[in-house]
Write a structure and sequence with these properties.
The structure holds 3 protein chains of 3 kinds. By secondary structure, chain A is mostly helical. Chain A contains 13 helices and 3 strands. Chain A has one domain: MetI-like (MetI-like fold), CATH 1.10.3720.10. In chain A, α2 crosses α7, α8 packs across α9 and α12 runs antiparallel to α13. Chain B is mostly helical. In chain B, α8 runs antiparallel to α9. The chains are: A mainly alpha, B mainly alpha, C alpha+beta. Chains B and C meet through α8 and α9 of B and β6 and α2 of C.
């Protein structure tokens, strides 16, 4: 039969006779090494180079030297603050529009689409496969001066209102802030819809029934149950929309005019056309810092720190 | 308004209220798809002048000769090559990182997590500009290789996120079961871990391909004289937009939708067959 | 039981600590070839950790594991002649049933597996399902696949980690008998980890009751039930009424104790506590050993029996039996199960009663332990 005795406990916390084998102790480091090295060299190190470039002076011909010339930052800010402001405004407007437009669609896919769910999902993702530049150019056709959209807005006198607000000018939509915001909204809408959908999808449908059972009207159910539970999606959706939109220069260039230039346009032209590297680096650094501060603040405020 | 009218009005308000979400959602879907419709329609246009922004007349010329524009198909092939290698590189490196993050304990986990999160929280133009600064400082020759390096860099984080989600939801007991059934570490990885993680890896790879193929801003900064397809489109927006651009855009949209539908039909049929 | 000892499992001084937490205290245990052995305990008692150390999925902090004469402590799981039926089965979702069962054979380089796999699937009555995926099977079927997948390798020892935990009650009963049948048929050593005392007692020849990383008691199911040696075992396995008492004297192999003025007698052999006069003991008796007599008929009770008076606090009719809760000076909530043969209509809440039972059914425990150890765990089932 089976025999059992309790072994005497070791007299002292004696050092173990042999150290426990650790299988694959170095494995994680080998797995991480190539990818992390890649990110360090091609993502982190460029940031340092950029920071250093922003405080250099010199010229293309004679080369640049680090002179701790922080005035570049001041000059860049005072010369280009309108573009910075515009970036924040346009990106903010586009983010809010994306939330307003994207939420119903995400809700529709998550709760109301039934057997159409997969099809709608495909239709949301499929446009990605047409180059976004081609699709952005299509807005030139849609918003063309002689097109039906502008015609309708004109007839309804909507353009009078938007002109008065400064969003459009005269009877044009193209080359105005409205066109740029419209393009930004369009371009980043899927980045809002997908995270919203994935957090809505996790909500147990029975919660709606429970709320209804506990005397909540549909609107109250949404306000008190559905929306709070979808907060992680709202937070990551707004970040995924706002961040790329604030650095974008494609929409401002293709759909806007010189009066709608955003900070991205400035960085691009300083870097690629004017070749004023310190100013460009300083602008880019300011943009990065601004985004990081805003993101950190926003994530802290909304209490969702586990976005990764 | 008499009572009958007000009743009809009442029911239609009710109907609208009940279907508000559906209507609003479909409006958004329309907004998302409208440009694709325009792109498709205008691939059959025969524009006067250099720009294809106004409808003139129906023509299938562009479809018959998609490569009829100088350099366009060349740029398409450059983009496809870069997307292929960038996907491969980012998927391999990203999968390794994802496994390390989920399956092992190691020092500096927080730092690694931040390093992976930051590229996704950075406007493209910032990464583009700083990478160019690095290449200029190192005196690197801008072109195919610098584009590839950049693409692997920004696709990596997305692959890690996609694979990590899948590996995290994987029951570690499955691997233990494999070990218990005489599979060594390598066999366990090949026979169990990899097949089960495959959907996540595939999703990551697909995402990387789409991101790389469609990237413009980072590429534009670091391409030198190499021209990718998005850069060709950008250039044509200044010089004149050939109809063939719309042909390529429409074809890729259709191919993507057809591929997805086909894979859904196949998996449906397989499930039904097995059940 | 055969004399072949190649399937013996011998644990010597085996322990496991995680940081400052000791999951398993140093423990010696021998499971002989061909036995059905159960490790029983509440969650977190160290039973699964012990099992995983035998499987090689967990490295012991100290001690050794032997299978027969071979030491396997340092062997990785894929080199041990041991297979496991995992909790919630861990069937490979990407492989069909046939390939799941064939997995172990293929990894050992066996080419023609068809016959063996088919035989094994027939043994667990799943021959028809070979080409389905795990998610297309019911819980009970998945469980049988998990058993087949492990058994086909004819391991020296089969480890079962809560194998029936995910099944509903009826199916669990059925699978208990099924597993017992398979074990008798193949004659392999089974080590079965469970938190379900009924499951352990139905299936195993030997049960080890574990608590807080130690084995509290080990023995046959009847032995454990009739002769619990700790309050944990007394409370975790079924229900016990425990009475705080003081030793009065010892005569002729019997111990006489005093509890709240009354006297109770128990055999010295059934007392695991020291029996010096004046010492404290806990006297226990199982609820079904007790007879309930209305106070008016107290005179009819034979004198040799242990007796306690009290009043009925609550009754509940179960069908085959009636359960009574009795308030008595020695024990506030005394439980009594009475078979419903002839029901005495006077036994209603408030009625004065005498509880009496044979001294032979009485056991004594060390009073230094917590009187309610194992109560909550049992109730949590």
């Amino acid at each position: 039969m089976a025999a059992l005795t309790e072994a005497p406990p070791p007299l002292a916390p004696a050092p173990e006779a042999k150290p426990p084998r650790r299988r694959g102790r170095w494995t994680p480091y080998w797995l991480l090494l190539p990818g992390i090295l890649w990110l360090l060299v091609f993502f982190a190190m460029p940031m340092i180079y950029q920071a250093s470039t922003s405080v250099q002076t010199g010229s293309l011909e004679e080369g640049y030297k680090v002179t701790w010339h922080f005035a570049t930052y001041w000059d860049a800010l005072s010369d280009y603050y309108p573009q910075f402001l515009r970036s924040v405004l346009y990106a903010g407007a586009a983010t809010i529009l994306c939330l307003i437009l994207g939420y119903p669609l995400a809700y529709l896919i998550a709760f109301r689409a039934g057997r159409w769910r997969n099809l709608i999902m495909i239709l949301v993702i499929a446009p990605f496969f047409t180059s976004f530049l081609i699709r952005t150019l299509a807005w030139k056709t849609i918003l063309a001066d002689s097109g039906p959209v502008v015609g309708a807005l004109n007839t309804l006198h909507v353009l009078d209102v938007t002109s008065w607000l400064g969003w459009t000018s005269g009877d044009r939509v193209l080359a105005t802030p409205l066109a740029v915001v419209c393009g930004l909204t369009y371009n980043f809408l899927p980045f809002m819809i997908l995270p919203l959908y994935s957090s809505l999808e996790r909500i147990d449908g029975r919660l709606h029934e429970a709320a209804g059972d506990l005397y909540a009207k549909p609107v109250t159910t949404f306000r008190k149950v559905t929306f709070p539970l979808s907060m992680p999606g709202v937070v990551s959706g707004t970040l995924l929309t706002f961040i790329p939109a604030s650095g974008d220069y494609v929409n401002a260039d293709l759909l806007g005019s010189t009066d709608t230039r955003m900070v991205g346009n400035v960085i691009q032209s300083q870097f690629l056309r004017i070749l004023d590297y310190p100013t460009a680096a300083a602008l880019s650094f300011i943009l990065m810092a601004a985004i990081l501060i805003m993101v950190t603040f926003y994530i802290r405020r909304s209490g969702t720190e586990d976005l990764v | 308004m008499d009572t009958r009218q007000s009743r009809i009005f009442g029911t239609s308000v009710n109907w609208l209220r009940r279907h508000f979400v559906v209507i609003a959602g479909l409006v958004t879907l329309g907004y998302l798809l409208l440009p694709n419709v325009v792109v498709t329609v205008f691939s059959f246009n025969n524009p006067k002048g250099r720009f294809n922004y106004q409808w003139q007349e129906f023509s299938t010329d562009a479809w018959k000769d998609p490569c009829g524009v100088a350099d366009m198909c060349g740029s398409l092939s450059v983009s496809l090559q870069i997307a292929f290698w960038a996907t491969l590189g980012a998927t391999v490196l990203g999968t390794m990182i994802a496994f390390a993050l989920v399956r092992y304990r190691f020092r500096a986990r927080g730092a690694v997590n931040s390093l992976i999160f930051l590229p996704m929280a950075m406007p493209e133009v910032v990464m583009a500009a700083s990478l160019l600064t690095l290449f200029l400082n190192l005196g690197a020759q801008l072109g195919f290789w610098t584009i590839l390096i950049a693409h692997i860099m920004f696709c990596l984080s997305f692959v890690v996120t996609a694979v990590k989600a899948r590996v995290m939801s994987m029951d570690p007991r499955l691997e233990q079961a494999a070990q218990d059934l005489y599979a060594g570490p390598f066999q366990t990885f090949i026979r169990v871990t990899l097949p089960i993680a495959a959907p996540g890896i595939a999703a990551g790879a697909l995402l990387a391909f789409a991101l790389s193929f469609d990237d413009f801003i980072i590429t534009n900064f670091n391409a030198g004289s190499t021209v990718t397809f998005p850069m060709f489109v950008w250039g044509s927006a200044q010089r004149g937009t050939p109809v063939q651009i719309n042909v390529i855009g429409t074809a890729m949209f259709l191919v993507a939708v057809l591929l997805v539908l086909a894979s859904m039909v196949v998996s449906n049929r397989r499930n039904r067959h097995k059940a | 039981m055969t004399n072949d000892s190649s399937g013996d499992v011998r644990l010597s001084g085996i322990s496991k600590t995680y940081g400052s937490f000791t999951a398993v205290h140093p423990l010696d245990l021998t499971v002989p070839q061909g036995s059905f052995f159960a490790l029983l305990g509440a969650s977190g008692c160290g039973k699964t950790t012990t099992l995983r150390m035998i499987a090689g999925l967990e490295e012991p902090t100290s001690g050794t594991v032997h299978l027969g004469d071979q030491e396997v402590t340092q062997l990785p799981p894929y080199k041990r002649p041991v297979n496991t039926v995992f909790q919630s089965y861990a069937l490979f979702p990407h492989l069909d049933i046939f390939e799941n069962v064939a997995f172990g054979l293929r990894r050992r380089g066996i080419r023609s597996v068809k016959k063996q796999v088919e035989d094994m699937l027939d043994l667990v009555q799943l021959g028809e399902q070979a080409r389905k995926r795990p998610h297309q099977l019911s819980g009970g079927q998945q469980q049988r696949v998990a058993v087949a997948r492990a058994l086909i390798n004819t391991p020296k020892v089969l480890l079962l980690d809560e194998p029936l935990g995910a099944l509903d009650l009826k199916l669990r009963r059925q699978m208990q008998l099924e597993l017992k049948r398979i074990q008798t048929e193949v004659g392999i050593t089974f080590i079965h980890v469970t938190h379900d005392q009924e499951e352990a007692m139905t299936m195993a020849d030997t049960v080890a009751v574990m608590n807080a990383g130690r084995v509290e008691q080990l023995g046959s199911p009847t032995d454990l039930y009739e002769n619990p040696r700790t309050t944990f075992v007394a409370n975790f396995l079924g229900t016990s009424n425990l009475i705080e008492a003081e030793v009065d004297n010892k005569t002729g192999g019997e111990v006489v104790v005093r509890a709240a003025g009354g006297k109770l007698v128990l055999p010295e052999t059934r007392c695991s506590a020291p029996t010096t006069t004046g010492g404290k003991v806990l006297v226990g008796v199982r609820p079904e050993k007790i007879t309930l007599t209305h106070a008016d008929d107290a005179g009819e009770i034979p004198t040799a029996r242990n007796r306690i008076t009290g009043t009925i606090a609550a009754t509940s009719f179960i069908g085959v039996s009636t359960q009574y809760v009795i308030d008595s000076p020695v024990c506030p909530e005394f439980e009594v199960y009475a078979q419903n043969i002839d029901r005495d209509a006077r036994l209603v809440p408030g009625a004065g009663v005498v509880l009496h039972w044979s001294p032979a059914h009485t056991f004594g425990l060390d009073a230094a332990q917590a009187i309610d150890a194992g109560v909550e765990e049992e109730a949590a089932l």
